[in-house]
Amino acid sequence: MTELSASDSAVAVGMPRIGDPAPSFTAATTQGEINFPADYAGKWVILFSHPADFTPVCTSEFMTFAAMQEQFAAYNTELVGLSVDGLYSHIAWLRTIKDKIAFRDMRDVEVTFPLVEDVSMEVARKYGMIMPGEDSTKAVRAVFVIDPKGVVRTVIYYPLSLGRNFDELLRVVKALQTADHFDVATPADWRPGDPVIVPPAGSCGTAKERMDGDADGVKCEDWFFCTREIPAAEVESAIRKRGA
Fold first, then answer.
1. Helix-strand-coil percent breakdown of the chain, rounded to 5?
2. For residue 199, what pLDDT is reported?
3. Residue 178: phi, psi to the nearest 5?
4. What pLDDT shows up at residue 78?
5. Cα(171)–Cα(189) distance, rounded to whole angstroms?
6. Annotated catalytic sites, by residue?
7. What is the pTM of this model?
8. What pLDDT shows up at residue 15?
C-alpha cells in the first residue's frame, strides 16, 4: 500500500459528511472577517469553492450566484464563496467582473456576498475541497448546504471543467426546507407543487390505512410508495423568507 505524504494526508482528512457539524473557521473575506458557521446561526448557508480567480467558468458562476442572491435570500439562505487565492486577488477579480464582464443577460454584476481568502488551503482542506487527482493546488467546485443549526445537509462536488447548475442548487434548498417543515421526503425532480413522499408506514398511519386510502390525503402505489399533495402556495408560504 502506498503511504500518503504529510501534505496528502492533510488533504485526505476533514471531508465533512452529511449530518456532520460544519467545520468551523475564522477567515478574512471580501466582506470582512467571518466566524463560520457561528455568524450564520439561524440561517441556511451555501458554502462553495471555486478553483481560481480570473478564470472563465468561475466568472460565469459568480455572476450567476450574484444574480440569484435575492432568490436564495428569499429562502433564508446566505452565500459564502471560497478559493485558495488571496484577498487582493479576490477584490480585483470581482471589480473586473463588475466593470468589464457580460455573460448572457448579466452585466455590471456586483458580488456582495463574502469570498473567503484561503491561501493556506486550511479551510479548503477542512472541507475536502482539494482533490489531488483533479488538481493539488486548486479547489474543486464543492457545494455544502448547511442548515440553521450548522449541520451539513447536502454535499455536491463538480470537477474544474464543469460549471454548476444553479437552478438545481436553489431546488435543493427548497426541497430540504420542505422535507424539514412537512416531515416528508421529495421524489426525483421534485419542485414545489409536486407530490411528496410520505414517511414509512407506522409513522403516518398503518400500512393498511395507507393502502386503503384512509390516511389523510395519502395515495399509495404499494405499501412502500405513498405520496400526498401539498399545493405549491402552501409550500412557498411555509419556507419563503424564514426557511424551515
1. 30, 25, 45
2. 81
3. -65, -45
4. 98
5. 9
6. 58
7. 0.88
8. 84
Q: Which residues contact 22 (CB under 8 A, 6 or more apart)?
A: 16, 36, 37, 45, 47, 144, 146, 150, 151, 152
What element of type H or E holds 44?
strand 44-49
Report the mean per-residue pLDDT for the chain.
90
Nearest to 206 by CA among 215, 195, 217: 215
Amino acid in position 76: N
Cell numbers 407530490 correspond to what residue? 195
Q: What angle do CA 160, 164, 168 make, to 5 degrees?
A: 155
Residue with the larger pLDDT of the pair 166 and 242: 166
Over residues 95-124, the pLDDT tens digits come to: 999 999 999 999 999 999 999 999 999 999
What average pLDDT score do residues 71-93 get? 97
Q: Is 231 exposed, middle or buried (0-12, 13-18, 19+ CB in 10 A)?
A: exposed
- Which of 137, 117, 142, 132 lies closest to 22, judged by CA? 142
B/e letters for 178-195, b = 16+ CB within 10 Å, e = fewer, are: bbbbbebebeeebebebb
Residue type, 49: S
Residue located via cell numbers 464563496: 81
Q: Which has the closest alpha carbon to 138: 182, 84, 189, 87? A: 84
